[in-house]
Design goal:
Elements: H1 13-29, H2 39-50, H3 82-94, H4 100-114, H5 147-157, H6 161-168, E1 175-176, E2 185-186, H7 197-204, E3 207-209, E4 218-220, E5 227-228, H8 230-237, H9 239-250, H10 252-268
Antiparallel strand pairs: 1-2, 3-4, 4-5
Helix pairs in contact: 1-4, 2-4, 2-10, 6-9, 6-10, 7-9, 8-9, 9-10
The protein binds ligand CCH.
Ligand CCH binds near residues 41, 80, 143, 175 and 180.
């Protein structure tokens, strides 16, 4: 009997879950990086891939993975994200059928969930595009600016004030690096676990300008070991932003719910999906 001719491989949920599991395993294994995890930098890769979206022209966004190429990969805002892209290369080799664009976003979802954050619904469908789709420099936020800049940048993507504050809560994770952005230090004491601590610390600690030769940033008065960017401080200086920061500081569940919705929206900006169905991946500790 003759073997049936094989059709093209059409990956299903189980196949993407295998990719998730491979990223989760690498996150657990490769713990000799920064504060012990590549998780935060993976979240930043997925955000910077998505945050170039311009609702008016429909350009940018996570469809395309154009950060692989110069000039986009060399934009100042993307400094250091090569570490995240290189971290994912062995996973791409293991699952060559997945596009870089789907892999980067799946890894952002995985990193958030593995760092004990909320579930982020996911669907595949992004295609990789060539260098001609690189976005112009200046679409991602500049940390030295004020609330009008935050509203202009995130408004361009289609977010409202509430969603902007929810997304900012990602700064519970990771740290600033002097050789990347020029800023220095983490926002919270547990930079590899997602909690609402960013909002709690913003509201409850006393902050002062750090005295140093680097770019203007805040430090906490008590320990001088935490930092806030000028844009972070706008989240409690602006009345409308602050209202949401207070809601999130008070209730981690509310933060998780609204963060998950806003991140899922961010990760899908500008992607022409063929399917409505969204998946929820099983975490390694489920
Ligand atoms: Fe951010 N972010 N971010 N950020 N960010 C930085 C690091 C992380 C801004 C500036 C910076 C979001 C919004 C903003 C992460 C997630 C998100 C750094 C340090 C700067 C500067 C980079 C370095 O030196 O390595 C500004 C400005 C805004 C908005 O106004 C949003 C939205 C998200 C995700 C939803 C994460 C995670 C990091 C840590 C990365 C790491 O390597 O540890």
């Amino acid at each position: 009997q003759q073997a049936k001719p094989k059709g093209p491989f059409v990956p299903k949920f189980e196949d993407y879950q295998k990719v998730y599991d491979a990223v989760a395993k690498r996150l657990a294994d490769e713990d000799d990086y920064d504060d012990g995890s590549y998780g935060p930098v993976l979240v930043r890769l997925a955000w910077h891939a998505s945050g170039t979206y311009d609702a008016l022209t429909g350009t940018g966004g996570s469809n395309g993975a154009t950060m692989r190429f110069a000039p986009e990969g060399d934009h100042g805002a993307n400094a250091g994200l090569k570490a995240a892209r290189d971290f994912l290369e062995p996973v791409k080799e293991q699952f060559p059928w997945i596009t870089y664009s789907d892999l980067w976003i799946l890894s952002g979802v995985c990193a958030i969930q593995e760092m004990q954050g909320p579930k982020i619904p996911y669907r595949p469908g992004r295609t990789d595009r060539d260098v001609s789709f690189c976005t112009p420099d200046g679409r991602l936020p500049d940390a030295s600016k004020d609330r009008s800049h935050i509203r202009a940048i995130f408004g361009r993507m289609g977010f409202d004030d509430r969603e902007m504050v929810a997304l900012s809560g990602a700064h519970a994770l990771g740290r600033c690096h002097t050789d990347r952005s020029g800023y220095d230090g983490p926002w919270t004491f547990s930079p590899t676990t997602l909690t609402n601590d960013y909002f709690k610390l913003l509201l409850e600690e006393k902050w002062q300008w750090k005295k140093w030769n680097g770019p203007k940033q805040y430090e906490d008065v008590k320990t001088k070991s935490l930092m806030m960017l000028p844009t972070d401080m706008e989240i409690i200086k602006d009345k409308t932003f602050r209202k949401h920061a207070e809601r999130y500081a008070k209730d981690n569940e509310v933060f998780f719910r609204e963060f998950s919705d806003a991140v899922a929206k961010l990760f899908e900006l500008g992607v022409p999906f063929q399917t409505e169905e969204k998946w929820t991946f099983k975490s390694s500790f489920d």
